[in-house]
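re: ur msg from earlier - yeah i can do the adenosine-5'-diphosphate complex, just paste it... oh wait u already did. ok heres what im feeding in:
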Amino acid sequence: MIPVTSFAGKRVAVFGLGGSGLASARALATGGADVVGFDDNAASLAKAAQAGIATADLRQVDWSKISALLLAPGVPLTHPAPHWSAGLARNAGVEVIGDIELYCRERRKLAPYSPFVAITGTNGKSTTTALIHHLLISAGRSADLGGNIGTAVLTLAPPRADHAHVIECSSYQIDLAPSIDPRVGILINVSADHLDRHGTLEHYAGVKERLVAGVPPDGAAIVSVDDEWCEAAADRAVASGKNVVRISVRRRLSDGIYVENGEIMRAVGGDAQPVARLGGIGSLRGLHNAQNAACATAAALALGLDAAAIQIGLRSFPGLAHRMEQVGRKGAVLFVNDSKATNADSSAQALGCFSDIFWIAGGKPKTGGIASLAGFFPRIRKVYLIGEAANEFAGTLDGKVAYEMVGTLDLAVEASARDAEASALKEPVVVLLSPACASFDQYRNFEVRGDRFRELVLALPGIAPVKQ
Ligand code: ADP
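and the outut:
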């Protein structure tokens, strides 16, 4: 744990006592703060009380005695409307911050030059975070990963110069971290997502940009410039004197890291040298993963790894569950779990990797649906529609691709396995769960949805599990 000392002797309110909120409350209390926690959920409240955290209804407390409100990242700060606790704090002139902000303040006191690597982007955050961590560990470095990927940042060991913290940051977390200042900051991409929580794309992109804008002049601001928002962010970072490393998987760069024919190249003043090859690495299939791998390579180079170590690390990367995870094979049919693809952009990445696809899609729809995926329709042999989005998606597919309204994942696996097998298409025929939707209409989260898919696939007669 990282004890938070910056509020020692002060009263701090914590709203949202799930994993990271509880970890923050503990770290604040251990550092000497007088913590009062609250949550709308009675079970979380009881758990916090059991863990020795003082709790009280924050509507009833004297806000003039409170120094800060620590908000869990799942709680709305601005859109669609500020949570009532944030409103009370603002009215009382109390700052509203999150756990990454506490981490940054503590790090500046303990080890301001420690290798703090922060990663954000609309898509690819977890993969890039896990890959950087893996590259460091496989090169014999000491490193931990945390943040949005699952481990609350304040539960990690305190920052120190010889130990890297590789931290995935959601836009919500950046919004709550006004002084975020990673030594290596990475902005992978920006596209429309989570606009319900950020209002406009301008605001959302602006929040993400703050992660690289906070990189100190002697750090590295790594920005993939394949979309216009990130391109503009990179230009602004250069103008403000940062050491910017541009990344592209779409064009050659005269300075930066780019990917061409599966090769990661490093260019300096127009002179390009190969760093590593991505060919044959199953866990990094597709152009989207090339973007993640190029960003991770840039981070590894900034942290002093050499090309040989990076190549070894890339080759041994096992990949993450629910992201184009190869689950099993039955004859020519490969079953792929891409449950993490909760928007059309993400599903586009998976659809682009295969050519004969039996596609399971649907769930809780996002704005725009799957209209943007029309270019992939010729690769799709049939679609199996599940969840709330089924009718809307059927409207988009009508007359263009065969589809079946199966409703549930259980029926989708059964029907798609049957059709894929009967298709007599040549290897690889792919049954792909890549929903282009959130899971909340039928599952607690995308992990539970992906786990169910894996379970159903592995129960098919004659299936051979794929070892990761
Ligand atoms: P995040 O943590 O940002 O949600 P993940 O690494 O978990 O991202 O990947 C989630 C999904 O997003 C993947 O299954 C894939 O479909 C898609 N994806 C991953 N990397 C990228 C990328 N660089 N660009 C676009 N889509 C991506």
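cool cool. Residues 121, 123-127, 188-189, 288, 291-292, 323-324, 338, 340-341, 345-346, 349-350 surround adenosine-5'-diphosphate (CB under 6 Å). ping me if u need the other ligands too
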